Amino acid sequence: MRFSVQLPTDRVEAFDEFGTAEAITEVARAVEAAGFDAGFVTDHPFPSDRFIQDAGGHHALDPFVALSFVAAATTRLKLQTHILVLPYRNPFHTASAVASLDAVSGGRVIMGVAAGYLKDEFEALGADYENRNAFCDEALRAIRAAWTEDGVQFEGSGYRANGHTLEPKPVQKPHPPIWVGGNSKMAIRRAVELGDGWLPIPAPKKMASFISTASIEDLDDLRDRMAYARAHAEKIGRTKPLDICFVPFGLSMKSQDDLDPAVFRSRIAELEEIGVTWVTLTLPARTRAEFCDRVASFGAALRP
């Protein structure tokens, strides 16, 4: 089992505490020093006021800006987007940003992506909400072509490459891992066919409806989705293992509850037993000093 810790770059309401270059450097080094495998950031370039005020939503620093500071501050820590909303950006622009980050970090990027669900944000960015799933499939093919080919020929939805080459290419070969978010069978198929990992989340029915995905309420639901992933992989002839990164049940990326390491370990053991390979965790804190202390103590508690 490997672990990815949320970096508090979404705490823009406390920017001086969590958003400055000094703050990002300090928290990133704390996460690496504590022995965690990755740090992840979120993606909300222009959320609506309604999402922030009525739905408990959040802003976030641009993921590539934030992770470039993390890359400069660390040497080993993986740099994870969790998640990058693919339809918000031209695929070749995304390919360039991720390849540049992978190059300057020495090959440490994990690109977590999803189709997105905030219709208001789609509209503000001029992105196509209704066709977002088809766009995601197309975008992943375009990104992989840009990362691995020269003289790319690709006809997309509103964009076209007719002999284009991306430089620098990613350090990781054939390309950085692509982890696909979403609980639906469509998202699972996308992960199996076009990705290297799958990013499901625990989601009761009410939450699942809000974020436009399928519910995963307990371990049995997760097992069923994982069985579907294995069956689809067998159907298409995929033999490469699929990483699965999950938030333990009872927690969330926005959880403000203190984590008990003993309880957390028991939940990890259950997930590991059924084939989950990565776990994400969020450690709430009022200050970055508190965040760094909690990261250190939690990391120590999780070590064998």
Defining traits:
15% strand; two-stranded antiparallel ribbon; 12 helices; TIM Barrel; 304 residues; alpha/beta; globular
Give a written overview of the molecule.
The chain has helices at 15-18, 21-33, 49-54, 63-73, 91-104, 119-125, 132-148, 185-194, 205-210, 219-236, 261-274, 288-302, and strands at residues 2-6, 38-41, 78-85, 109-114, 152-155, 160-164, 178-181, 197-199, 243-246, 278-281. By secondary structure, it is of the alpha/beta class. The chain has one domain: Luciferase-like domain (TIM Barrel, Alpha-Beta Barrel), CATH 3.20.20.30. Strand 7, helix 8 (185-194) and strand 8 (197-199) form a beta-alpha-beta unit. The radius of gyration is 19 Å and the shape is globular. The chain starts with a strand and ends with a helix. The mean pLDDT is 94.
Blueprint of the fold:
Elements: E1 2-6, H1 15-18, H2 21-33, E2 38-41, H3 49-54, H4 63-73, E3 78-85, H5 91-104, E4 109-114, H6 119-125, H7 132-148, E5 152-155, E6 160-164, E7 178-181, H8 185-194, E8 197-199, H9 205-210, H10 219-236, E9 243-246, H11 261-274, E10 278-281, H12 288-302
- What oligomeric assembly is this protein in? single chain
**Percent of sequence in beta strands:** 15-25%
CATH class reads Alpha Beta
Instruction: Label the structural class.
Output: alpha/beta
CATH superfamily: Luciferase-like domain
- Sequence of secondary-structure elements: EHHEHHEHEHHEEEHEHHEHEH
CATH topology: TIM Barrel
Secondary-structure arrangement, i.e. CATH architecture: Alpha-Beta Barrel
Residue runs with pLDDT of under 50 for 5 or more positions: none
How many E-type strands? 10
Number of helices: 12
Which strands sit side by side, in order, in the main sheet? 1-2-3-4-7-8-9-10
**Total domain units:** 1
The span between the termini is: 12 Å
Instruction: Report the mean per-residue pLDDT as an integer.
Output: 94
Outline: globular
Helix content: 40-55%
- Gyration radius over CA: 19 Å
Largest beta-sheet characterization: 8 strands, parallel, barrel
